[in-house]
Amino acid sequence: MPSEAAELVFDEATKVYPGREGAAVDHLSLTVPAGEICVLVGPSGGGKTTALKLVNRLIPLTSGDIRIDGKSILELDVTELRRGIGYVIQQVGLFPHMTIEANIGTVPKLLGRPRSWIKTRSAELLELVGLDPSYAKRFPSQLSGGERQRVGLARALAANPSLMLMDEPFGAIDPIVRARLQDEFLRLQQEVRKTVVFVTHDIDEAIKVGDRIAILREGGRLAQYDTPMEILEHPVDDFVADFVGRDRALKALALRNLGDLELAPASGGDGLPRLPSDTSLRDALATLIADHRDSALVVGPDGAPLGIVTRADLLR
Amino acid sequence: MTQHHHLVDGGPVIPNFGHGSDCLRNNGWFCTEWVKEHWGDILQPALVQHIELTVIAVSIGFAVSFLLAVVGFRFRIFDLPLGAFTDFLYAIPSIALFQLLVPVTGLTVTTIEIALVSYTLFVFYRNIVAGLRGVPPDVLESARGMGLTRRQTFWRVELPLALPAILAGVRVATVSTISIATVAAFLLYYGLGGPIFDALQQPDIFRTELVAAGGLAILLALAADGLLTALQRVLTPWNRLDR
After folding, report:
1. What is the pLDDT of residue A3?
2. What's the CATH superfamily of A8-252?
3. Would the pLDDT of A99 be above 80?
4. What confidence tens digit (pLDDT) does each residue in A70-84 have?
5. Which residues on B lie below 8 Å from A90 (Cβ)?
6. A19, B41, B115, B184: least surrounded by Cβ within 10 Å?
7. Quick check: pTM over 0.90?
């Protein structure tokens, strides 16, 4: 029952709160291609959460339009619209009085799916998000924060939506578990290929999970919308450069692997440290610095030498 | 039976003075034989009436409060006046309220029920509104975000999550109704208050009757509380889990 990922278009989407000066989201126009993760990032007051909530009409648009697969959200019945969109929030918002299975089955139940279907689906989803199926009969209070957020993700995926909205989903989770959840989320995305709008205030998280990043500035104006690499290497202005940080060159190194480089032939690399080709340039540089070396031997997954990389290659 | 009599033949013989036992003649605190003799014509009917009074008052009180609470919860401007109204009713001393109602509804069970119901409103209204308001905002947001309608959110999320507070209200209201209902006999010989008042009006206070009827009221309150606590545990399984 795969539903195709949808293309999401913000078309001059604007939100002005009555009685407040200036817009919260100001003529936002961007297109999220089907199956991609778009991260909305920016300082507080940048309107990123507001922009997200415009999509499922938790916040009504003041002007402009948002289209999902070409269809305006304003033309759809609001409950139908919401049931077709997966929604994940920072505090998860699991229903404390329902078992994990019932939580996951919330939207399918509203859509009239039979109990047996929900049972099977929730077991399947628990496995997908890396939880034991025995969790089905537990209550949310019996789970850790990280486990709860996995259930939140499973619940959002339950009705197989073509679009997912994630509002700082890992913001309340400690850094170690957060990193693991990010990795698993990316693995999951390889499998389910949803169109995802992901809000975070953490630029590192944005770089890690985003296929594209939209940087919003104060007043809800779009500063730059690009791939992480473009944003790191070619920030459009000082605001963006500032926001991604002084270490943006290092961050850019983290996005590329040794395998992406053209390497010098592997002759005479015997005494050199060996680095697998899927090592990021950043980690490679760190290794060279730590080992007081100028070059390393890059090896393939089978351990076969592929070539030699130097500090200069890494910093080019 | 006769076999057993033979067994105690060698033991001390307990004297039997018939109806006017030592205990009763001395106005003892608890004469079992009186209780046994009058269980059927005094105590049991009073107990049944008392349970009836309580069940009816709590049920009607709950139904009325539930409607008021939903109004006060949905439309905040009504919350303050409704809360103040139930406060006001609760503040009237029970004997005064019973008397105030007599000119309207006479010396009837209806009078008693109206007074009892009006006392439950305070506890019910507060607890139901507090329970509904206590639902965490993130839970409501996810409900809305997933496409639950307002009605679905109320019945599937808000009401079940308010259940612990509501059931706590039911316990308090039931137990306090059981105690206030004894005062109703001031008006009308009805419920366990009947034998209690009766005993108090005897020249020396009829101790056995007082203790028996009063004790039944206490036992009834304890039993009701225990039963409702058990119900609470069954109805809110998520609420008694510790991590």
Report:
1. 63
2. P-loop containing nucleotide triphosphate hydrolases (3.40.50.300)
3. yes
4. 999 999 999 999 999
5. 138
6. A19
7. no
pLDDT at B3: 41
Q: B161 and A81 in contact by Cβ < 8 A?
A: no
Match 């409950």 to its residue by tokens: A79
B1, part of any domain: no
Q: Note down the domain range covering B113.
A: 38-236
Q: Between A97, A110, A139, which is nearest B147 by CB?
A: A110
User: Is A87 in Cβ contact with B145 (below 8 Å)?
Assistant: yes
Please report which residue ranges of A193-310 form alpha helices under DSSP H: 203-209, 228-233, 238-244, 248-254, 281-291
Domain count, chain B: 1
What strands, in cross-sheet order, belong to the sheet with A274-276? A274-276, A295-299, A305-310
pLDDT single digits (tens) A107-160? 999 999 999 999 999 999 999 999 999 999 999 999 999 999 999 999 999 999
Identify the weakest region by mean pLDDT among A10-19, A66-75, A217-226, B4-13.
B4-13
Residue A158 one-letter amino acid: A
Instruction: Nearest by CB to B147, from A83, A95, A142: name it.
Output: A83
Residues of A in contact with B153 (CB under 8 A): none
Instruction: Give kind and range of the element (H or E) at residue A10.
Output: strand A8-15
Instruction: Report whether pLDDT(B11) > 50.
Output: no
Amino acid (1-letter code) at residue A187: R
Identity of the residue in B139, B152, B243 whose CB atom sits nearest the CB atom of A141: B243
Asked whether residue B213 is domain-assigned, the answer is yes
CATH class (in words) of the domain with range A258-315: alpha beta
Buried b (16+ CB within 10 A) or exposed e, A262-284: ebeebeebeebeebbbebebbbb
Q: CB–CB of A58/A73 below 8 Å?
A: no
- Give me the residue spans of the domains in chain A: 8-252, 258-315
Residue B13, in any domain of the structure: no
What is the residue whose two structure tokens read 């077991």? A123
Model pLDDT for residues B62-80, shown as the tens digit of each residue? 999 999 999 999 998 898 8
- CA–CA distance, A81 with A74 (Å, rounded to integer): 9
**Residue B34 has what pLDDT?**
74
Q: Is residue B15 part of a domain?
A: no
Q: Report which of A263, A226, A219, A275 is spatially closest to residue A248, judged by C-alpha positions.
A: A226
| Chain B residues whose beta carbon lies within 8 Å of the beta carbon of residue A76 | none
Taking residue B68's Cβ as centre, other Cβ atoms within 10 Å add up to 21
Query: Can you give the C-alpha Rg of chain A in angstroms?
Result: 22
Token pair recorded at residue B131: 């329970």
* Length of chain B in terms of residues written: 243
CATH code where residue B119 lies: 1.10.3720.10
pLDDT per position as a tens digit, A156-198: 999 999 999 999 999 888 888 899 899 999 999 999 999 999 9
**B77–chain A nearest CA distance, Å:** 22
> Are the C-beta atoms of residues A243 and A215 closer than 8 Å to each other?
yes
- For chain B, helix, strand, coil in percent to 5 are 80, 0, 20
- Say which of B142, B144, B241 has its CB closest to residue A142: B241
